[in-house]
Design a protein that fits this description.
With 293 residues, the chain is α/β, with parallel strands linked by helices. Helices cover 25% and strands 28% of the residues. Pfam families: PNP_UDP_1.
Length: 293
Amino acid sequence: MKFGSSELILNADKSVYHLNILPQDLADTVITVGDPDRVKLVSQYFDKIDLKKGKREFLTHTGWINNKRITVISTGVGTDNIDIVLNELDALANIDFETRTIKKVKRQLDIIRIGTSGAIQPDIPVDSFLMSEYAIGLDGLLHFYDSLHIQHPQIQQAFLKHTNWLKDKSTPYVVTYGKSLAQRFMSDKIQLGFTATNVGFYGPQGRILRLKLEDENMNAKLASFNYDDKRITNLEMETSGIYGLAKLLGHRAVSLNCIVANRPNGKFSTRPDLAMDELIKFTMTKIAEEFID
């Protein structure tokens, strides 16, 4: 199948439309961050930077640490942006831009999200690190794809019943991390969690400013949900989209969360920049360990 110019959109230099990078610009290991300013906070730990490109909120640096080539890219906020980034990363890896056809030999990317998150369990401390083993998407993105085979319907049905989820809302979906990739990041510095990916920052995460919420008890319902000793631990806005699309496209993904807020305790980190830097250094060390001469 040949992709038309309205489906696979390329810029004049043959770079992919939104990310503005070429296939040769992309490493097999990709770190995603939400904030474009965080890209340089990651790439400062590269031994060498070969590439810096940017367009809109999508900033990309590609370089090296030890013998490992790495790309770090900003996604912006939300699973709508994740839909752009994951599809275009896969296009860069697995579509021939000259013939506009799928390559016979596929590249598998390792996608590592480094992001901030808020805990909804009182025992998860601010400034701690959490790796999302499961993610429940409250956003609806995966329902636009043929994705039932990667979802966990028993957990989903238990969640719908527990929360009295309204039928006119998008049905939540549950997906998991790339287990073999996650093994690289297992550490006593990181706990495993079950992350809820929200469609927004204020109302969808239970924040009340001037607008009344449809359900002011939703965060309490999320926190009290338990399925087979799996409890929802934290809230953020990208993980379920990354996990779902990565799995569908044949890539591996993990989401590493820096807990900057504890919602039930009403606490926010007094040193979020320092905590995030510690998570970045931890991640870079784990990536580099397998590639030390």
